[in-house]
Amino acid sequence: MAESADPKPEVKYYTPDPSYRQNSWMGDYTWAYNEFLKDPEAFWAKIASKLYWYAPWEKVREWNYPYAKWFVGGKTNITYNCLDRHVLGKNRNKVALIWKGETDEEERVFTYRQLLREVNRFANGLRELGVGKGDRVCIYMPMIPEQVIAMLACARIGAVHSVVFGGYGAAALNQRIVGAGAKVVITADMAVRRGKSIPLKHVIEEAIINAPTVERLIVLRRETGRPVEIHSEMEMDFYEVTKDMSPECHPEVMDSEDPMFILYTSGTTGAPKGIVHTCGGYMVGVYYTTKYIFDLKESDVYWCTADPGWITGHSYVVYGPLAVGGTILISENTPDYPDPGIWWKMVEEYGVSILYTAPTAIRMFMKLGEEWPDKYNLNSLRILGSVGEPLNPEAFEWFYHVIGKDRCPIVDTWWQTETGMHMITTVLGEPMRPGYAGKSIPGVVVDVVDKDGKPVKPGESGLLVIKEPWPAMMRTVYNNDERYRKYWEAVPGCYLVGDLAIKGTDGNIMVIGRSDDLIVVAGHNIGTAEVESALVSHKAVAEAAVIGKPDPLKGNTIKAFVTLRVGHTPSDKLKNELIYHVRITLGPIAMPSEIEFMDSLPKTRSGKIVRRVLKAKEMGADPGDVSTLEE
Ligand code: WTA
Q1: Residue 555 needs a FRET pair 20 to 30 A away by CA distance; which of 8, 58, 234, 258 works?
Q2: Which ligand 1 atom lies nearest to the CA of residue 497?
């Protein structure tokens, strides 16, 4: 690949070898984008027609601002497209899923046929338990094949899954179970991390107290250590559910606009938001982007390192790659266990050709040194991907040179739980500009505007917005449609993303970060409000305010400012206790790395804590206008 300079000397681009474009599904970016602009509905209809529908749609899109429907009247089932289509076609015995545990011996491989049979058995088991179309099922599991099987089984029978990341604590889990009104919760007895078992079941047991909708708890008892006991009427063993079940199961015929899943994401105020995605549009969106952005081909070995508990896992571990018919690698391992070479060893051993990961992981590897990836042969790699937070130029360069050997294009994909699918990236073959994610992908219209919706001048920063509906967009916030409308109401005619961005003179977009009270820690959104309410639930805490502090490794870390109730005195011991308290309530991902005790917090006269003042103080910056603050 050639390294070239823009007319402006400081702008550097990397241009992939032309064969990437020539051999890609997408072809030329500008041509593809124009095809979309010429006739957006025809563009999406052409993609959707590659998938199987029980009944065709009558209308591609119905846009009733701010509500969109896609493939209106169409009937389908995503699992038919992810599994049966390949089994009935030529890929019956192709490997669908490879799971790798922490040790060399632990490996499980499923062909498409085997995966379909496992999904069907579990789907039949769920039906037997009375779970049907529209029922909510919470899945709280570590990264094991059964997590994927459980998701697909729900989608098979039209049950709405709500996957909760296995690293969340009891309170966070309870909130999500109650929010979704889950009828069944599926879990495992333990997760494995760095050679140790992490018990999960007691977290669930605590989380389903005060969750009256839960009728059943299905527990996968792993063969690591001593299996936990199933002790109440409500509990069932995972393989008891599938026992004697037929490996054939009729997929539920789903309307394109039937809800498919709920996924909770941190909100800027209090409770997390249950983002609702529907069957038809989501399926088309993730199929399209997996095939065209990752250029997934028949012979690829595809590894997305995300956990299915996040949207990245939903769209780009499970549904997108299976819809395209790829071979997917998943792994329960930690990137530096047993040593920091494990990922690169896996790339070599499995011949991974597409690797999709997060900047926080890349920066961690940067710190650990090139000697680890250099021990392994990474020649199988063809395409690299990044998601979750801005891929800063230093991390881009390292990923490009050390992992991609100056050969593999990097797709830095910007998108959200709410968008369901990729929205911005540099399409294969286009010149890549480090620090800039890229442009709207064909099918999507993204812009950077001011608060009135007017596009900013090139080089200026503004609000990132989406100007046209897209198939995989969220349809509502579960039980809170008002919150949904807010996304579309703040800036006239646009979907407000909540990120700040800069549009370069070349049209490339640099995403700077959140403009609201979300903190992106190691690629995961944490609401300041969630952490604050966890802190004030501790008996010693009167008030708390939480900010994100830029961190070279994690993007941000969490710092909490705390005032204490009378009778409690600041101490290091109390700091540790508070950090631990957040850990068990919300989970390790939301743990503050720093706590500072204060006598009072800066507030407006109406009593709102002004985090920006704390942040400015922390960063040694000017706090701005403080005239509206209390004395
Ligand atoms: C951030 C994850 C810069 C952004 C798929 C967004 C990014 C939030 C990128 C969504 C990227 C995601 N460059 N920032 N390539 N990708 N973000 O819902 O702030 O967990 O709004 O979805 O992550 O996070 P979410």
Answers
A1: 8
A2: 21
Nearest CA to ligand 1 atom 6: 416
- The Å distance, Cα 387 to ligand 1 centre, comes to 6
265 close to ligand 1 (CB < 6 Angstrom): yes
Ligand 1 site-directed mutation target among 282, 319, 387, 521, most atoms within 8 Å of CB: 387
Residue 123, helix vs strand vs coil: helix
Q: Distance from the CA of 486 to the center of ligand 1, in angstroms? A: 19
pLDDT score for 1:
45
| Ligand 1 neighbourhood includes 390 CB (under 6 angstroms) | yes
Ligand 1 pocket residue status of 314, Cβ below 6 Å: no
Ligand 1 center from residue 126 Cα (angstroms)? 34
Q: Is 311 in the pocket of ligand 1 (CB under 6 A)?
A: yes
Of 90-104, 418-432, 475-489, 529-543, the one with minimum mean pLDDT is 529-543
pLDDT for position 619 = 87
Cβ-based neighbours of 29, under 8 Å, separated by 6 or more: 427, 429, 430, 439, 442
Q: How confident is the model at residue 626 (pLDDT cuts 50, 70, 90)?
A: low
pLDDT digits (tens, 9 = 90+) for 166-192: 988 998 899 999 999 999 999 999 999
Q: What is this structure's pTM?
A: 0.90
Task: Pick the residue whose CA is nearest to atom 5 on ligand 1.
Answer: 416
Q: Rounded mean pLDDT of the chain?
A: 92
Query: Is residue 415 lining ligand 1, measured as CB closer than 6 Å?
Result: yes
Q: How far is the CA of 64 from the centre of ligand 1 (A)?
A: 27
Structure tokens at 355: 């690797």
CA of 416 to the centre of ligand 1 (A): 5
Residue that the structure tokens 């030529």 belong to = 90
How buried is residue 395: exposed, middle or buried, by Cβ count under 10 Å (0-12/13-18/19+)?
buried
CATH architecture of 517-619: 2-Layer Sandwich (3.30)
Between CA 159 and CA 575 the distance in angstroms is: 43
Q: What is the 3-class SS of 460-492, one letter each residue?
A: CEEEEEECCCCCCCCCEECCCHHHHHHHHHCCC
Dump strand ranges (E) for 30-182. 59-64, 67-72, 75-76, 95-100, 107-111, 136-140, 160-163
CA 507 to chain centre: 26
CA-proximal residue: ligand 1, atom 10 (nearest): 416
For ligand 1, atom 15, the nearest C-alpha belongs to 414
Place of tokens 């897209």: 470
**Which of 10-24, 41-55, 320-334, 434-448 comes out lowest in average pLDDT?**
10-24
What residues does each domain of the chain span?
517-619
d(CA 58, CA 289): 23
Contact present, 428 and 383 (Cβ < 8 Å) = yes
